[in-house]
Structure formats: structure tokens, C-alpha cells
Amino acid sequence: MLRPAGRQARGFFLFVGLSHRSSGVVCASIDPVYALLTMSSSSTPLRDIRSRIDQLDRAIVELLAERQSAVDDIADIKEQKNDNVRDPDRESQLMDRLRGIARDHDVSPDLVEDLFGSIIAHSVDRQNDRRDDARPSRLRKVG
Ligand SMILES: O=C(O)C(=O)C[C@]1(C(=O)O)C=C[C@@H](O)C=C1
User: Fold this and answer.
1) Which residue owns the Cα nearest ligand 1 atom 12?
2) What's the CA-to-centroid distance between 87 and ligand 1, angstroms?
3) Ligand 1 binding residues, C-beta < 6 A
4) What are phi and psi of 27, to 5 degrees?
5) What is the complex's ipTM, to 2 decimals?
6) Which residue has a Cα nearest atom 10 of ligand 1?
7) In the chain, what are the domain boundaries?
8) Which residues belong to any copy of the Chorismate mutase domain (predicted)?
9) What is the pLDDT of residues 99-121, one digit of tens each?
10) CA distance 31 to 38
11) Running DSSP on this structure, what letter comes out for residue 8?
């Protein structure tokens, strides 16, 4: 008997379970609910796909770190030239380009805009914090 009692009544055919009915005949039946219940995170397809997602998420975070390092380089240049941290023209060009790339890959352009809106907001904060840290302490912003 491979299936728990009480599930034998289900007349579906997905998961093979052997059971001795009252007749003594061994019946084979398949139960989708049981199949789903037993398809826990240890089952191979789900585990493999989650492992792939974990790798992709790691790659995304590593790319963000790389982007952050490039932004730090820009921050240094802008600070030397006393340029503004924010560049609205660059931001709108970047967003248009990314929305186009999203469309080409069947990803929601709004999702990409939200994500990059957040990434750029952090980028701007980081650049301002670096400028602030570089100032003599008596000239730093408080709060
Ligand atoms: O390209 C710049 O000038 C940056 O400072 C980088 C960056 C970004 O994170 O992409 C951040 C702020 C600007 O408004 C535009 C772009």
C-alpha cells in the first residue's frame, strides 16, 4: 500500500499506488492530490528549478554590486567636477532603453521601470552619502 487510507476513493489516474482491496485483488490507481502532496521541495523537478532560480537571483545581486561599483566611479568624477548627482535626461534615456529591452524579452516594462526606479533612487542616495562622508564633519548634514 503506497497511498494513505482515505485517498483510495479518488478515481484519478496520475500517481500509481498499489492497494489490496477487500477482494484481495491488487489494484493500481493514480491520485493527483497525493502526487501533489508528495511533490515536496525534495522532489527533483521543483528542487532543480528552485536551484536554478537561486543561481539567477545570485547573479542579479552580483550584477547589482558591479553596477554599484560603476556608479561609485561616476560619483567620484561628478564630485571632482562639482556636477549634480542627479541627471534626469540620463535617467529618462536609461528608462526608455530598459523598457524596450523588457518588451523584447516579454518582461513587463512596468516591472523593469519599478525595479530600476528603485535601483536609481538607491544610487542617488549612495552618491549623496559618499559626498556627505567626504565633507569635513562640521559641514555634514545631520539627521
Ligand atoms: O549616470 C549617472 O550620471 C549616474 O549618476 C548614475 C545614475 C544611475 O544609477 O544609473 C544615477 C543617477 C543619475 O540621475 C543617473 C544615473
Assistant:
1) 86
2) 6
3) 71, 74, 86-87, 90-91, 94, 120, 123-124
4) -105, 145
5) 0.99
6) 120
7) 1-39, 44-139
8) 40-131
9) 999 999 999 999 999 999 999 99
10) 11
11) T
